[in-house]
Amino acid sequence: MKRLFKGKSWMLLAIAIASPAMLPAQDKVEASVGADLVSGYIWRGQDLGNVSIQPSLSIAYKGFSLSAWGSVGFEKSDTKEFDLTLGYGIGGFSVSVTDYWFNNGPAYFHYGAHDTNHTFEAQVGYDFGVLAVNWYTNFAGNVGYNSDGDRTYASYIALSAPFRLGGLDWEATVGATPWENDFYNGGKNGFAVSEVGIKATKELKITDSWTLPVFAQAIWNPATEGAYFVAGLSF
């Protein structure tokens, strides 16, 4: 689940599939591999773990992309996560489908309607440059339920705006869930703002050919009255 919005804090994934690309579709296969070390795993205002390693791998061709992303906490009690995302982007427009899986339930190959720990989510978004808008909806697996036990297809809308200030790259983020569901915020009723965040990133020069991105992020969740301050390194 995406993650400390590295370029979802990128890709609503760590590898920029969930985030729209502003460049034309590439004409050759491109691949990338990386990992983040984070002091806490906060996703859409939800506390999902403590210090974690979050690896990523992606391949892209002509606007299509396939990525894998994971999270493994340093503490034995932390949930392990493995996500796969198939996406397409052109100009500022992007669409994607993500399969989220967690290890604290049925095993990976259990896909039953009432026997699965997978969540399938669709995303559509547009990056206007000064503002990116993304909508996410769960459509299969653990889709979210209301207080009556009905499936609600939990959804999330995120707005993010990048800017530069004081020699650092910044990103302001606001996210909300539009209707009642138990997937976010412990089942708060109706519309709820789940995240108000500000993130700063700096490139540390290690050698003439290698820089190490360092980021820090302050996050508030008005719906749960939670507040978090996290930092990370991107390798």
TrEMBL record:
<protein>
    <recommendedName>
        <fullName>FrrB</fullName>
    </recommendedName>
</protein>
<feature type="signal peptide">
    <location>
        <begin position="1"/>
        <end position="27"/>
    </location>
</feature>
<keyword id="KW-0732">Signal</keyword>
